[in-house]
């Protein structure tokens, strides 16, 4: 049965799709990996005939997806809390919540975290936060870490604001680039996620 890793945050622009794609490429180097998007109009679905090394699946039912012959399925979610996100959390093995270090993002994360915690009270769901699009040498990052501490969910990494991430959908992910720092960031994030299993 496939492990389901969901990438979710109700706010748009925090890099969910970029992270989902790069993590899928990374996992796809080792295990049978697929990627789906709960928003059929999402950018992920447009890669269906382009992505190599991972399968892009139409989102149907999360329970049915788990039965497919994959080791890991990444679930990208839209920039809002849709009605069926809670059932997706209940069926997921892990939820990664990416957030920028800005005040609006930290405020907006609350609703997503509340749904994660509600699902955790009824399942074995694991979860973590990753700081995404982190600007270099900005003191707000440490302030964001302190603010996020109130949620008692581990922060498992920082992904810097690098040009290579912006080109992910055109280039096949960071692993087809020469940016060793970006590759290392995704490697480290992947390892941190695996440590929950």
Tell me about this structure.
The chain has 197 residues and is an alpha/beta fold. The chain has a single domain, classed as Rossmann fold (3-Layer(aba) Sandwich). The chain is built from eight helices and seven strands, in the order βαββαβαβαβαβααα. The chain has a seven-stranded parallel sheet with strand order 3-2-4-1-5-6-7, with helices on both faces. Strand 6, helix 5 and strand 7 form a beta-alpha-beta unit. Helix 1 crosses helix 8 and helix 3 packs across helix 4. It is globular. The model has no long low-confidence stretch (mean pLDDT 87).
Give the biggest sheet.
Answer: 7 strands, parallel
What's the rounded overall pLDDT mean?
87
CATH fold annotation: Rossmann fold
Question: Any low-confidence stretches, pLDDT <50, length ≥5?
Answer: none
- Tell me the domain tally: 1
What is the CATH-assigned architecture?
Answer: 3-Layer(aba) Sandwich
CATH superfamily: P-loop containing nucleotide triphosphate hydrolases
Give the radius of gyration.
Answer: 15 Å
Order of helices and strands: EHEEHEHEHEHEHHH
CATH class, anyone? Answer: Alpha Beta
**Ends apart, CA distance between termini:** 14 Å
Instruction: List the strand order in the largest sheet.
Output: 3-2-4-1-5-6-7
Amount of helix: 25-40%
The number of helical runs is 8
Q: Strand-residue fraction?
A: 15-25%
The coarse overall form would be globular
Structural classification: alpha/beta
User: Could you tell me the number of beta strands?
Assistant: 7
